[in-house]
Specification:
The chain is mainly α. It contains 21 helices and 12 strands. Helix 14 runs antiparallel to helix 15. The two termini are about 25 Å apart.
């Protein structure tokens, strides 16, 4: 980063969090060079130091960046028709230490440096209110804890930065990687200090800044990660040492980590609820101009992250505005004259995870058709709320989250009619329901959202590779020609905390507490409680054992956190990523499906999916940093 860019960052006015590109090929000490030329400007007055603080937030990776995010659309939840973009290198496994494709290593260290400079220099700012200065310092401490957590999540044991590093230090003074325990303890310390000093809530223009609740929430996520199988009793790291022979990740299992994680999760939940955070429920149709979804449960589920005016579910979120290639335009049914690219496609594996209407996995629900009957077509009654025409048994009588967050052939996709000429497109009047409030999605060959007008004219992009289409994070009141509806993309939600609490409770053997937290999620989702649902299951005893409840919690989390940046990390920390991320994705027959009978044949998607163990469980440190700092060791496999 040169001094010209550095000066721009110092002077940017705060409208939303800044976007600072992730840099991949320079030493972490070089990310922010000698700042003496700019420090006079940065700390000259209260407005300048405010801009400097804002720029520190800009080093947070944008979680909703559908091109440059490591963890957004890169697990096994979706396949897209945008396999040429950077993010797609991660499910393909085609990232290396020499070419990490996307790396947060140097940008996170750049953020750490900026925070420490602020802490060191802020008392020199003339006319800066003492309370404001203290708040800025506390926010910087929070960011130091958060950046360190992200480094641990990505890379495991990290370099601990505890002050402003001298960019001119000789190479022999460069730091080595700390142990995992030391890294976690440092991040925990900074988050604890921030939590003790920060306010519980932020209002108005301060929304998005750090709070004590956010600090407790990130600490909870940190400790759950530390207790999870990837870092707790994982023998595959038995030879992972630094150059002095120090074991970087301990391989012995420690039950006490789960106890500490549970305490941190419960503390975060108590703080969040005391600050007014609640699972979002649209009881009063508070967006009066939005007719769909008309079903209250689906409306609550769809708007839980999108109703930025009144949702309290997001504990801490990203306020940056979506761009042209964000998830919203990429998901909308095709209209290639506008920003509606039709290409974010849930996999069949993801579609199977959603429960039946009885709150059970399909194979556990004795009232649901057996797998051999899943693809038998069924005509919907005229008043059926989720589809029009024929759909397979597989998509009938499923839980509300499926219908709220994904769509399928003859299913309903909520989107406003645009202002352009719609004839012959997916937005033609004939494809709307009777009230003209939502589309009936048409995705077969020869139909507007299908792959082509005929088998001989298939498109290579802007189509759903699985025959399913994402609706989550797409505003149901959107006009396809005016796609920029701002929402707060969550870093952490109350639902996330409930699920982490349930997971930690299971691992400590407290199944009752686990069920209590799961039932909060399930009630909002419109499905029966754990015990009520599993009492009617084919294997009702599963909900009464630790091993069974572990599976139940993980499936609940895989559903509730769909497309919220968790799948990529959850499968890694659960240590089962190679099973799921190396599987060939499947979907409907979008290539030759000219009739429903042909279209609903399960077909492999022609994409590369590769996950190597232990290599891909951690991200690679850029090789250029390994070359410059002789004390660094690379992560296993790279």
């Amino acid at each position: 980063m040169n001094k010209y860019i550095n000066n721009i960052l110092l002077r940017i006015a705060w409208v939303a969090l800044l976007v600072v590109p992730a840099m991949t090929s320079c030493n972490y000490l070089d990310i922010v060079p000698d700042e003496t030329a700019t420090e006079k400007d940065a700390f000259a007055n209260p407005e300048a130091v405010k801009a400097y603080l804002y720029s520190a937030y800009g080093y947070i990776p944008a979680p909703h960046d559908a091109v440059n995010s490591i963890d957004f659309m890169t697990g096994d939840e979706i396949v897209s028709s945008f396999e040429h973009e950077k993010f797609a290198n991660f499910p393909k496994g085609s990232y290396t230490a020499v070419n990490p494709q996307i790396s947060y290593w140097n940008s996170l260290f750049g953020g750490l440096r900026r925070c420490y400079i602020l802490i060191e220099k802020i008392d020199e700012v003339p006319k800066l209110d003492a309370k404001v200065a203290a708040d800025y310092k506390s926010q910087a401490k929070f960011l130091i804890g958060y950046f360190t957590y992200l480094l641990i999540q990505n890379y495991g044991p990290t370099i601990i930065i505890d002050g402003v590093e001298d960019v001119n230090m000789p190479s022999e003074d460069y730091k080595k990687r700390a142990t995992l325990k030391e890294s976690v303890e440092f991040a925990k310390k900074m988050l604890d200090e921030a939590a003790a000093e920060l306010p519980a809530t932020r209002q108005g223009a301060q929304y998005g800044f750090a709070t004590s609740v956010a600090a407790k929430a990130i600490k909870a996520k940190l400790l759950v990660l530390y207790a999870s199988p990837i870092f707790n009793g994982n023998k595959m790291y038995s030879n992972f040492t630094d150059k002095e022979g120090v074991q970087l990740i301990p391989t012995e299992y420690e039950q006490a980590r789960w106890t500490e994680a549970l305490q941190a999760c419960q503390d975060a939940v108590r703080a969040a609820e005391a600050a007014g955070h609640r699972l979002y429920q649209d009881k009063d149709n508070n967006i009066e101009s939005m007719p769909e979804p008309s079903d209250k449960v689906q409306r609550s589920l769809r708007m839980s992250t999108l109703d930025s005016a009144s949702s309290t579910e997001t504990v801490w979120g990203d306020t940056r505005v979506q761009g042209w290639y964000a998830v919203m335009p990429k998901s909308l049914p095709l209209y290639d004259k506008e920003a509606a690219w039709n290409g974010v496609a849930p996999t069949l594996a993801m579609m199977k995870r959603f429960y039946t209407a009885n709150g059970l996995p399909m194979e556990e629900d004795p009232t649901f058709p057996t797998e051999g009957e899943w693809w038998t077509l069924k005509e919907m009654a005229s008043d059926y709320p989720n589809a029009k025409g024929r759909i397979p048994n597989f998509l009938y009588n499923r839980e509300p989250r499926l219908y709220a967050w994904v769509c399928f052939q003859n299913g309903y996709y909520e989107v406003k009619q645009g202002n352009k000429e719609n004839s012959g497109t997916m937005y033609d009047d004939k494809y709307y329901n009777e009230g003209k409030t939502k589309l009936v999605l048409k995705m077969m060959i020869g139909e507007p959202a299908g792959r082509g007008k005929s088998i001989s004219t298939l498109r290579n992009n802007n189509y759903s590779p699985t025959g399913f289409l994402n609706k989550r994070l797409v505003h149901p009141n959107i006009d396809y020609s005016k796609y920029r509806i701002k929402y707060i993309h969550p870093y952490v939600t109350l639902a996330d905390l409930y699920l982490l609490t349930a997971e930690s409770a299971v691992e400590t053997g407290d199944l009752t507490t686990a069920k209590n937290y799961l039932d909060k999620i399930r009630k909002r989702a419109g499905i029966p409680s754990v015990d009520e649902a599993w009492a009617g299951a084919r294997n009702p005893q599963k909900a009464q054992s630790k091993e069974g409840m572990r599976d139940i919690v993980r499936q609940e989390r895989s559903i509730e956190m769909y497309l919220l940046n968790q799948n990529f990390w959850d499968r890694r920390r659960w240590l089962d990523a190679e099973k799921y991320f190396s599987a060939v994705p499947q979907g409907m027959n979008v290539n030759t499906g000219t009739t429903l009978e042909l279209y609903t044949q399960v077909t492999n998607v022609d994409v590369v999916r590769r996950f190597e163990s232990p290599k891909n469980y951690l991200m690679p440190i850029p090789q250029s940093d390994i070359n410059k700092n002789q004390k660094l060791v690379q992560n296993p496999g790279y």
